[in-house]
Backbone:
């Protein structure tokens, strides 16, 4: 019996060694195979751009790519996107739903509302600045100056004078500079803090009806002696019912759009 077990052990060890050798041989062939696969060469050059027109086209392409990389910052900081997203955040906290609607829905709705609100400004920039520049009717400096005017006008309309005066004084800007010539690095931060204040004011008004519902539910639970039951669990369905009955989304979106008129 011992001899049989020893013989089986030797056979098992030999089988394992043969299997290991086969694996090593085939793996070396497999790893060595990709060495014969040709690697494509990637070459980015400006060959053929010998005349001035080709150089101008390449510069325009570079400018467009640069604008696309900065586009998210422009959307967030120089449009109605700030107020809309902050108000939506307050709405979700006021109702008490932690992840519903999800952030993707809020961001998508805020983007489309921003496009809707800013469409007149975009059309004016496209008509007066972008299209003439692409047709080589005006220079780049003129296009930037003309295109910044509608955006500056929109931001100044939503900016409080107190906030604008703050950055004018800190930036030591000449007080004789009119609003049409106000630099954007002064207008943009003033616009942002004004938008934040307006969004917080709207958020406060949103909290009031839902806070009343929470107080009523908490008082009823206390009077019934159900102190261990979280009031949020009971008040959440009533807050949702209240928001749906008054057509809250219609009222909120309408108020946000009209606040920019």
Residues:
């Amino acid at each position: 019996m011992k001899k049989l077990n020893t013989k089986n052990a030797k056979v098992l060890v030999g089988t394992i060694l043969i299997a290991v050798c086969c694996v090593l041989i085939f793996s070396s062939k497999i790893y060595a195979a990709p060495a014969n696969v040709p690697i494509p060469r990637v070459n980015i050059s400006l060959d053929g751009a010998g005349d001035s027109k080709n150089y101008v086209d390449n510069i325009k392409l570079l400018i467009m790519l640069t604008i696309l990389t900065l586009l998210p910052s422009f959307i967030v900081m120089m449009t109605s996107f700030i107020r809309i997203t902050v108000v939506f955040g307050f709405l979700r906290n006021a109702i008490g739903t932690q992840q519903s609607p999800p952030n993707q829905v809020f961001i998508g709705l805020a983007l489309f509302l921003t496009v809707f609100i800013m469409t007149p400004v975009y059309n004016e920039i496209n008509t007066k600045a972008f299209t003439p520049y692409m047709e080589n009717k005006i220079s780049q400096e003129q296009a930037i100056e003309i295109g910044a005017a509608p955006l500056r006008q929109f931001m100044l309309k939503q900016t409080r004078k107190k906030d604008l005066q703050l950055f004018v004084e800190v930036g030591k800007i000449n007080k004789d500079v009119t609003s049409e010539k106000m630099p954007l690095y002064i207008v943009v931060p003033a616009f942002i803090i004004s938008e934040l204040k307006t969004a917080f004011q709207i958020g406060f008004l949103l909290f009031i009806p839902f806070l009343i519902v929470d107080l009523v539910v908490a008082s009823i639970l206390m009077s019934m002696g159900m102190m261990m039951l979280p009031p949020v669990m009971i008040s959440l369905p009533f807050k949702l019912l209240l928001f749906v009955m008054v057509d809250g989304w219609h009222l909120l979106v309408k108020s946000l759009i009209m606040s920019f008129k």
